[in-house]
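I'd like us to work through together how a protein chain folds, taking it slowly. We need material for that, and I hope you will provide a protein of your own picking. Go ahead whenever you are ready, and we will take it from there:
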Amino acid sequence: MEKIYLAGGCLWGVQEFIKYVPGVVDTKAGRANGKSATTQGDYDGYAECVEVTFNPAEVSLETLIHHLFEIIDPYSVNKQGNDVGEKYRTGIYSEQPNHIAQAKQIIAARNDADRIALEILPLTNFVLSDDIHQHHLSLHPENHHLCHIPWDLLHKYKVK
């Protein structure tokens, strides 16, 4: 199993979407690359993200990145839907240097690479979000109006 950390605006929608992708084994909502080890306190530079544990024999890193592009505006800086601010920036983070190198190559190969506002960095810190944020849209679908991703798209890969 391998892990990649994907940021695409509000973590509720990213988690609800990516957890159904075949080959994804587990997801955890959290914060990437902030300075703190807690969710308490002032904003510390983190990006809302989802830790994605995946089986590389079933789904490639490249496929996961393509799936991320299904649910984000890759040209938007610090904004996805109605969520505005640095913590809503898009990004790909990993503790594995080969993931970072591969992500950069995948983005560079796109014909719109010069316009993409996606941060690709080593993961320096991951803080698990509070329980209320874990699988939030599965547990509280009534809060979907707070998510910019259409419901049908969120469940595109959910086995019916």
